[in-house]
Amino acid sequence: MDVCRELEQKYGLIPADQKKRQEGLPLKPVRYEDGDVKHQIANVIRPIAQSWHFQRLKEYNALLSLYNISMEEVRGEAKGKPYSGIVYSALDSKGEKAGHPFKSSLFGKSVGYDALQKHIEKSAETIKNKGLKERSKKVIAAAMHTCKTRPDFEKALAKQGISALVRTNEEGRIYGATLIDPEQNCVFNGSRLGKEFSANVFNDLFTGKDITHDLQDDRINPNTELGSGKSFNRESQDLGVGGLFDILSPETQGENPEEEAFIRKMKRKKRKQKRRM
Fold first, then answer.
1. 42 φ, ψ to 5°?
2. Per the domain annotation, does 54 fall within a domain?
3. How do residues 2-38 score in pLDDT, each as one tens digit?
4. What is the three-state SS of 39-52?
5. Domain-located, residue 76
6. What is the β-pairing status of strands 163-168 and 186-189?
7. For residues 76, 82, 84 and 90, what is the CA-based torsion angle, rounded to 10 degrees?
8. The 3-state secondary structure of the chain, one letter per residue
9. Does residue 21 sit within a domain?
10. What b/e string do you get for 58-80 counting C-beta neighbours within 10 Å, with b at 16 or more?
11. What is the pLDDT of residues 229-240, one digit of tens each?
12. CA nearest 52: which of 147, 234, 185?
């Protein structure tokens, strides 16, 4: 498998398992090599921004990554007034940005910063009032009780229609996880579902530590039978994005304290390395 991955990266091939998952997506993933990228991106972001529930821009970005799209919040100042905006980019088969970014205004107000913030507020109310977390929590808790490795965990979730995007550092430690449930059109950061789904818990689970006490929650019954849903998944990747220009900076506030702490630590490490140089 390692040799296959190296060949795929060397020759820009789409992994077979990734291609299979993308074939089952409700919308068509962007293919940069097909051209007319702007139109391809529009066909994905417009319906997603209207019909999916997410409570952070990072969750929105995680969902878009499945469709080979990157979303970035940019901030700056114009005529003495601060502003925030959104830009979209296509991703190639390696998950890297391809071509130039597009301002959200090119796609309409519904996918711009102000509209997305309003949608986030509405999504939070909908998720709470309709109890949309419960189905995902039951599926994930059941998988955590029966699976001891990441591949088995992701396969178990996929059978129930849930995709897991797990972020790891260079040492292989998990510092973030995003769960995507297409049956309910919801995207959740793991810690948003509860402390028993935090990055530390996932990391301990996949390194062989006993986390039974973290999973014992009266509100979650891992033995509950659930119907299977339509599955789509993609290989886990770090979804962090950097600034596009010196005068613009990406979103800095996140919903996961563990993930934010890790990012701050890595930034301090890089600054120390630069000073040594």
1. -60, -40
2. yes
3. 666 666 555 545 555 544 444 445 689 999 999 999 9
4. HHHHHHHHHHHHHC
5. yes
6. unpaired
7. -10
8. CHHHHHHHHHHCCCCHHHHHHHHCCCCCCCCHHHCCHHHHHHHHHHHHHHHCECCCHHHHHHHHHCCCEEEEEEEEEECCEEEEEEEEEEECCCCCEEEEEEEHHHCCHHHCHHHHHHHHHHHHHHHHHHCCHHHHHHHHHHHHHHCCCHHHHHHHHHHCCCEEEEEECCCCCEEEEEEEECCCCEEEEHHHHCHHHCHHHHHHHHCCCCCHHHHCCCCCCCCCCCCCCCCCCCCCCCCCCCCCCCCCECCCCCCCHHHHHHHHHHHHHHHHHHHHC
9. yes
10. bbbbbbbbbbbbbbbbbbeeeee
11. 444 444 444 333
12. 185
Amino acid at 218: D
Spatial CA neighbour of 62 closest among 240, 260, 207: 240
| pTM confidence score | 0.68
Task: Please tell me the distance from the alpha carbon of residue 103 to that of residue 87, in angstroms, as a whole number.
Answer: 5
Length of the chain: 277
175 falls within a domain: no
Report d(CA 50, CA 67) in Å as an integer: 16
Instruction: Please state the separation of Cα 218 from the chain's center in Å.
Output: 28
Domain that holds residue 36: 15-129+239-251
Any residues with CB less than 8 A from the CB of 23 and at least 6 apart, and which?
none
pLDDT category at 175 given cuts 50, 70, 90 is: confident
| Domains identified in the chain, total number | 1
| Angle 80-85-89 from CA coordinates, rounded to 5° | 140
